[in-house]
Design a protein that fits this description.
binds flavin mononucleotide, 6-stranded mixed β-sheet, alpha/beta
Length: 169
C-alpha cells in the first residue's frame, strides 16, 4: 500500500509523532509546507497541532484541498487526550478531511508540550475569573503535557496506524 504521511508542526511534537508513524509504516514523514501531492496514494495520514480547538492553519488548508481517496488524521494538543476537548479537536480534523469527498478511515490524538512562551503570554492576558484565565487546573494540565509526546504516545500511535493499515490491506 502506498502511504503518504504528512504533518504540520510548530514546536516539533506533531513531527515526532509523524516520524514514529512513518517509521512504523516504512515510509518517511513529509512537512506540509512542501505541499505534497496526495494523488496516487492509497492512504493519506495527515497530522496537525491543535490551534484554538481546530487543525492549525497550514494543515487546515491542505486537508481542505483533498477531494477523494482515503485519509486518516492524527493530532497533538495541550489538553489530555481523553478529554472532551481532545475528542472535539479530532472530530474537527476528520470533518475537514472529509469535507470534499475523501473517505475518513481513522483518527488518533495525543498530548503535546505547550510552548512555554504561549503559557506565559496567556498567564498575563486574562484576569482571574475570565473564561480563559489560567486556573490551577489549567496549569496542572499544561504541566502534565510537558513530557508529551512520550514513548507511550509514540508507541500508541505506531500501534494505531499499523492496525489501521492492516485492516485496510
Ligand atoms: C496558538 C496556540 C493555540 C493552541 N490551542 C490549543 C487548544 O485549543 N487546545 C489545546 O489543547 N492545545 C492548544 N495548543 C497547544 C498545542 O496544540 C500543543 O502544544 C501541540 O502539541 C503543539 O504541536 P507542535 O509541537 O507540533 O507544534 C495551542 C498552542 C498554540 C501555540
Amino acid at each position: 500500500m502506498k502511504i503518504l504521511v504528512v504533518y504540520s508542526s510548530k514546536t516539533g511534537n506533531t513531527k515526532r509523532v509523524a516520524e514514529a508513524i512513518a517509521e512504523e509504516l516504512r515510509t518517511t514523514a513529509t512537512d506540509v509546507r512542501g505541499q505534497p501531492d496526495p494523488a496516487g496514494y492509497d492512504l493519506v495520514i495527515a497530522g496537525y497541532w491543535v490551534d484554538r480547538g481546530a487543525p492549525d492553519a497550514k494543515m487546515k488548508q491542505w486537508l481542505g484541498s483533498l477531494t477523494g481517496g482515503r485519509v486518516a488524521v492524527f493530532a497533538t494538543l495541550g489538553a489530555r487526550a481523553d478529554s472532551d476537548h481532545a475528542a472535539k479537536c479530532l472530530e474537527a480534523g476528520k470533518a475537514l478531511a472529509g469535507e470534499r469527498g475523501a473517505m475518513v478511515v481513522g483518527g488518533f490524538i495525543c498530548q503535546g508540550k505547550v510552548d512555554p512562551a504561549l503559557v506565559e503570554m496567556m498567564k498575563g492576558m486574562f484576569p482571574a475569573g475570565h473564561p480563559h484565565a489560567m486556573t490551577p487546573e489549567r496549569l496542572a494540565g499544561i504541566a502534565e503535557a510537558d513530557s508529551h509526546p512520550d514513548e507511550a504516545d509514540l508507541s500508541a500511535a505506531r500501534d494505531y496506524f499499523r492496525t489501521l493499515v492492516s485492516s485496510l490491506s
